[in-house]
Amino acid sequence: MSTGLVIHKALYGTGSTTVDVTTTVASKVKDGVLSFTVSPTTLNVDDPAPGQLKQLDIVYTVNDGSKNELMKKDNDIV
Predict the structure, then answer these.
(1) In what helix (H) or strand (E) does residue 26 lie, and over which residues does it extend?
(2) Which among 26, 58, 71 is positioned nearest to 44, based on CA atoms?
(3) Which of 17, 19, 28, 45 has the smallest set of CB atoms within 10 Å of its CB?
(4) Are 73 and 55 in contact (CB under 8 A)?
């Protein structure tokens, strides 16, 4: 049985202009905690929509529970 925080999908961008950052976000989980500021730099990607406000959408589970979704905008802390 797997426990803890599991990242299933993470997309960053705006509208239909998004990039998959699942691997990067999953790598930021430390001791079951995810904490970073949303930006292209922290997500290791080129800005998918320069000059526009982007959003990070994360689908995750905790302790094999039901899937949850978290949405944060640029410069928000996850």
Answers:
(1) helix 22-27
(2) 26
(3) 17
(4) yes
